[in-house]
Amino acid sequence: MATEERKKEILAKLRTAVIEYDEDSAKEGAQEALDEEIYANDAIFDGLVSGMQEVGRLFEAEEYFVPEMLMCADALYAGLDILKPHVEQLDLGVKGSVVIGTVEGDVHDIGKNIVKMMFDVAGFTVYDLGRDVPLDKFIDEQLRTDSELVCLSAMMTTTMVGMQKVIADLKKKNPNVKIMIGGAPVSGDIAEKWGADGYADDATNALADAIKMVSSLKQLKEEAEAKAKDNP
Amino acid sequence: MSKEKAMTETMTSRERVLKLFQGQATDRPPCFSGMGNVTTEGLNQLQYKFAKVHLDEFQMAETAVTTHKLFGFDACVVPFDLCAEAEALGAKINTYPDSEDLLYPTIKEKVIHSEDDMDITIPRDVSERGRVPLVCKAITLAKQALKDDVCIGSYVLGPFTLAGQIMELNDLLKLSFKKPDRVGKLLEALTCVIVAVAKAYEKAGVDYLTVREMGATSDVLSPRVFKNLILPHLKSIFEQISVPSVIHICGKTNDIVVPMMETGASAISVDQKNNVADTRKKLGDSALIFGNYDPYNVLVSGTPEQVKETMTKCLDDGVSAVWPGCDIWPTVPPENFKSMMETVREYRR
Question: Do B251 and A184 touch (CB under 8 A)?
């Protein structure tokens, strides 16, 4: 078991690897974390995700743009792939599965992939339908997997309109399903008008929202742990 | 209304748009676009299916002229989709022939599949491939249909946006950072394609051309990368276009309006995310700034009053012409389109 100091060092290495989009260093840090018996959950949340939070800040400050963010995401995945098999599943009282995809007529999937990454990090089961997805497929997949969250993405005004139909159909078939829409042309007004539960209009917001979601999971995790400590 | 029209309109749409590009005064602010503006009203009148109008020069031209005929829009633009150049380079497109929804064609098969494929050879007859000849015919047909009353516009993609269509955007973005020389070489090759297509459209009789480089928006790329990697190629394109020209970039653009002007385009086109009052200050009184209403959230889903407010604000902020931030979404309600046209007719500076 690593000392507290060594643990800090490894977590910092993972964080920096993501920020500086250094895939090799992320792999190394992840392996060191495992070798030295640091919890995979901690390495992910306090190392990789913490790095991604800083990337989000740099993006918002316009120091980083989409190319940098994509490279940071590659570094995060490089570490995550090593750590994931060792993650302890937490009972958070949420089912944690999500259907995600870019709507028919749209072949852009970068925003969708960034959001997907955060769900991967959070340990959700992600059913990724890819891009240019026929609208019915979202509904079929939600019913098949009984996922409680569906994320629809569209990059262009010309493709966004199809979302309206999917939202209505999904809500009709399963009123409890939560729907998040994302993409450049999407707005709070549209989300409300069409009955979506959340929206993100750019990569910053998508990342911020996804981080928020993951952070609240992290909080739940800490609460669950504290509870477990109190009632052994 | 007709009295108002008689009072304020002393030019044809064509004269108005041409004068605008020449930097001369117009009877009223022009209201037009360099991007797609087909409407469901027009399609329904002709009983054409959206998925088919991209594939037939007669249907394309007939549909394109309806927006002027129905609403008095100051221009007619073909084509309606963004795939012509990629198709000429061998990409396969999907027009969604079986869909009941309005879906624009997309690329279903890319040309470049890995970094190693990036050294593409451009066919000499690239402007005779794919649907480029079809669009040329549609330009000529539309011109015949509207005689000398209305300008015919068309558009080509910018080199970076075209690169994002013929290869994975993900890879292109990362390589533009990791290997800018490699990407620069590809952009140079694509510049030749774009110029060849633009020349073909000019020969067919187009009156003005818009270069759509939305892939280079500051939402995605840093202004620094825009200037270093993309601007030189855009300059080369505008140097070779002889008709009046527009550079269009959507999304965040306030930090790149100066280099957009430096491309050599006659005008810049920006969307609703641009603060036009700032842009006007930055570029001065004589610069042509087109924009910047939201073609969906205002023109399609707003009320006629909201349309009026938005168009008035665009003009108050200092646009040289009322012009949408993107393609006009076809289902625009006729009363909204009319409200837009009325607003520019009645506007007083």
Answer: yes
Is A67 within 8 Å of B176 when comparing Cβ atoms?
Answer: yes
Full 3-state SS string of B78-104: CCCCCCHHHHHCCCEEECCCCCCCCCC
Residue contact A65–B222, C-beta within 8 A: yes
The first and second tokens of residue B6, run together, are: 């008689």
Looking at this protein, which amino acid is placed at residue B217?
T
The residue assigned the tokens 């969250």 is: A149
Contacts of residue A105, Cβ cutoff 8 Å, sequence gap at least 6: A132, A154, A158, A159, A162, B96, B101, B103, B104, B106
Question: What is the biggest distance separating any 2 CA atoms in chain B, rounded to whole angstroms?
Answer: 64
Q: Which residue has the tokens 């999407």?
A: A186
Polymer length of chain B: 349
| Contact (CB<8Å) A105/B101 | yes
What are the angstrom distances between the C-alpha of B159 and each of B3, B164, B236, B336? 47, 9, 11, 34
pLDDT of residue A188: 83
Helices B169-178, B159-166: inter-axial angle, 10-degree rounding: 120
| Residue B6 predicted with pLDDT over 60 | no
Which pair of tokens denotes residue B250? 């959507």
B2-346 maps to CATH 3.60.21.10: no
- Alpha-helical (H) ranges within B147-179 are 159-166, 169-178
pLDDT tens per residue, range B247-290: 999 999 999 999 999 999 999 999 999 999 999 999 999 999 99
Which domains, ranges and CATH numbers included, belong to chain A?
4-88 (1.10.1240.10), 97-207 (3.40.50.280)
Instruction: Average pLDDT across each block of 10 residues of chain A; the chain has 232 residues. List them in order.
Output: 91 97 98 95 91 90 93 95 82 71 89 86 88 92 90 83 89 86 83 86 67 62 71 60
Residue corresponding to tokens 């007619």? B76
Find, in chain B, the residue whose alpha carbon is nearest to that of A63: B222
Provide the shortest C-alpha distance from residue A12 to chain B (in Å).
24
In this predicted model, what pLDDT tens digit does every residue of B97-153 receive, in sequence order?
988 788 899 999 999 999 999 999 999 999 999 999 999 999 999 999 998 899 999
What ipTM score was computed for the predicted complex, to two decimals?
Answer: 0.89
Interatomic CA distance for residues A50 and A44, integer angstroms: 8
- Would an 8 Å CB–CB cutoff place B226 in contact with chain A? no
Q: Any bridge partners for residue B70, and if so which?
A: none
Q: Where are the domains of chain B?
A: 2-346
